[in-house]
Amino acid sequence: MSVLLLRLAGPLQSWGTSSRFTRRNTDRAPSKSGVIGLLAAAEGRARNESIDDLTMLRIGVRIDQPGQVERDFQTARPVDGSAPLPLSYRFYLADAVFLVAVEGAHDLLERLASALRTPVFPLYLGRRSCPPAGPVLLGMREGTAGELLRETPWQASGWFRRRHSDATVSLETVTDCPPGTPGSVLVRDEPVSFDPRHRQYEWRSVLRAPVTVGNPDHRVHDPMELLGGDG
Amino acid sequence: MFLSRFEFNAVRRGARELLASPQRLHAAVLAAFPADQSRANDQGRVLWRLDQQPHQTLLYLVSPHPPDLTHLVEAAGRPATQSWESRDYAPMLERLTTGQHWAFRLTANPVTTRRKDGTATRSQRFGHVTVAQQTEWLLSRAGKHGFGVVEGRSKEPDVAVRGRRTLRFDRRGRTVTLATALFEGTLEVTDPSLLRQALTHGIGPAKSYGCGLLTLARAS
């Protein structure tokens, strides 16, 4: 199996899976529908085109830098000043960084990788107002999503890494799993169609587990070590 | 030359009294040597630095003669179980060659010397207080001390100001104010003899008050 590694980082991200109407929540990690949507946008697929090949991909997310939830209170009005639209709340994740592993067939992933390098539609992190900071594509690797989430170096920003004084850090992962796996939970996040007239989502089974990765910014300054032996 | 390390037991009253004042700590460090050994000679001088971490306070000491820190252990250490470590610095100093990379740590007192205004008759020292000024101070002096700061991942000099403090303490009835900065990063040796001089004679002012001691460790 091959894996496409993505780094999702930006000032704001928003990954809703369940909310409708005036209160639009965000999850604490990218949703499968959001990531599939990002890949479909890179390829330039229209909303009503089929995404069946993309939903077959297995997706795992690692929360490298959890970020903070921000609330945006909107008081929109029509241009003609008539009756105001309903007040609404939109929630965002500020300053978060995620590692996303997309597992699937080599040929399909290679096509997606080149689409991510030269995307047809602009890429965004869950909502149109949330552009990514820096390139989204980290690279393509061989292995499974689980392995790569364990092995890939920590992607958090420098200022965040330096705050951690320990040599290792424990990060939470959310990975696709077969339904019924012990400890798994169901979320309504399996996109079936993005057609604006008939959006459809199915249930998706995910497993949450922590992984431990090294902290590249960990430094112990020990000048005595170089002098060896006891003096 | 000798490099020594002593761990304070920060809950003891003696330790708190010493850690509260660089002036008292300076006196305690000098008390580790007989009068004729505490002066600087052509090999080097007495330099010290406090490395304060959340759960550990270490005193590093570089000196031409081996120190006797018994008084510190008794007043501010763990006399029943721990003393201090002291090692010969010469092998390390001789190992320095051009092109080596080392992780470094330095607490310094970055200052600029100038006249206060047009009417001032003498110049005086003014502390650098921003990170940018303090970093610039170190980078502009690195070459003179026989090293260059290597470039990090994002093509910027690999040096960070990890801690800034303004020390105020009494010295013979007058208040001394020092702006200190703790620098950490990676250096490349450009002139071993100049770097040896910097390691044993210190960098910048306020060397009696815990500033100017540069230490090297394995680069990560």
From TrEMBL, chain A:
Keyword ATP-binding (UniProt): no
Statement: the UniProt record of this protein carries the keyword Cell wall biogenesis/degradation: no
The entry's keywords: Antiviral defense
GO biological process, one term: maintenance of CRISPR repeat elements
Gene3D superfamilies: 3.30.70.2660
InterPro entries tied to this protein: CRISPR-assoc_prot_Cas5, CRISPR-assoc_prot_Cas5_N, CRISPR-assoc_prot_CasD
Pfam families registered for this protein in UniProt: Cas_Cas5d
Domain of life: Bacteria
CDD domains from the UniProt entry: Cas5_I-E
Molecular function per GO: RNA binding
Official protein name in the record: CRISPR-associated Cas5e family protein
From TrEMBL, chain B:
A Pfam family this chain is assigned to: CRISPR_assoc
Matching SMART domains: CRISPR_assoc
CDD domains documented for this protein: Cas6_I-E (cd09727)
Gene3D superfamilies xrefs: Crispr-associated protein, domain 1 (3.30.70.1200), Crispr-associated protein, domain 2 (3.30.70.1210)
SUPFAM superfamilies: CRISPR-associated protein (SSF117987)
Protein name per its UniProtKB record: CRISPR-associated Cse3 family protein
Lineage: Bacteria, Bacillati, Actinomycetota, Actinomycetes, Pseudonocardiales
